[in-house]
Structures are given as C-alpha cells and as structure tokens.
Design goal:
The chain has 65 residues and is mainly α. 91% of the residues lie in helices and 0% in strands. It has one domain.
C-alpha cells in the first residue's frame, strides 16, 4: 500500500512539474523569447517544482518522525 501511494504521489508531482514547465515555456514564447530561451525557462520551472516538492517532503518527513 505504501509503495503504491509513493508511486502515485511521484507521478502526480511529475505531471504537475511538466504542466508548470509547459506553461512557463508557452508564456515565454508568447512574450517573444526565442525557442532556446523558452526551453531554458521551462527547464528552470520544472526544476523549481521538483525542488519545492523535495523540500516540502523533507519538511513533512521531519515533522512526522
């Protein structure tokens, strides 16, 4: 049960990160950025979401133990 919950949570975080990256890339492109610049902004947004999820997970793990 715990493994399934961990896998579902990981999948959900990855989907949210991809959606945030796609949104950031699209907004950058609409703002007139070149494709490489938009891709860089999308990658930054993706990494930021994963970093935030890791930080929240670490904080919750510290509180629960």
């Amino acid at each position: 049960m715990n493994v399934a919950l961990a896998l579902l949570t990981t999948a959900l975080v990855l989907v949210i990160a991809v959606l945030a990256a796609a949104g950031a890339g699209k907004l950058a492109r609409l703002d007139g950025a070149t494709y490489p610049a938009a891709l860089t902004r999308a990658a930054t947004a993706f990494a930021a979401v994963l970093t935030l999820a890791t930080a929240v997970t670490g904080a919750l793990a510290a509180l629960l133990t």
